[in-house]
Predict the structure.
Amino acid sequence: MKIRTLTCAVSLIASACLFHSGAIAGTYKNITIDGSFADWAGVPLLANDPLDNPGSVDYGDIYLANDDNYLYIRFTLYTAADPFTWQQNIFIDADNNAGTGFTAGGLGSEMLIQGGAGYQEKTGGFNDGAITGLGWTAAPAGPGTQFEVRISRAATYASDGTRVFSGDTIALVLESDGIPNEWAPTPPVVYTFEPAPVALTTNLPLVNLVTSSWQANAAGADLGTGWLDLGYDDTQAGWSAGFGLFGYTPTTGA
């Protein structure tokens, strides 16, 4: 665990950014942290940090999702690297209040995660103590360009046993020490936890028979998992469109 001294540049960033943009509605999703990203299908891109820091771990796309138990983070790097060393930090503003906690990258951090370990910062210091029950899992291990992690929503401060995530809206920023430091995104992303969806009790038509089209690929080639992404181009060769009716009903035999 490193000891930190704030530089003037970081202090200027913090003082200029003591506000947060509007919260982004969350995505309720059960994610398995295994290095396969197919189960992120349908989770929207929340932020993109431009290619701007080749001297450090350079973050790109950032996605967030949650279920009842965990906050899930997915991010990309422009160049393959290991983002879970003592030089990389995840700062989480658990109360979405830049005026409380440790000032870092435009937010007030209550929790720092470094190398898979959690540290409390709610009293305003860098690493004021431990976090209990972080529930950290990350994949893949070692260098790569795309990663996913989970953090337990039941994590607590070791000093008093209170929960880190006391509210529904948080702010988050990723940092990598380098020359210069990399902060992503700028300003920090603000995220509101999504509650579990209400169980369906009525018939739900998903596609209209005569006005909704669907796409299918009959080329016989292995498409991998890329086609599950919302941004996948299904107009390329091998794909055809048609009309059909697909739906879900809780009534057996309907």
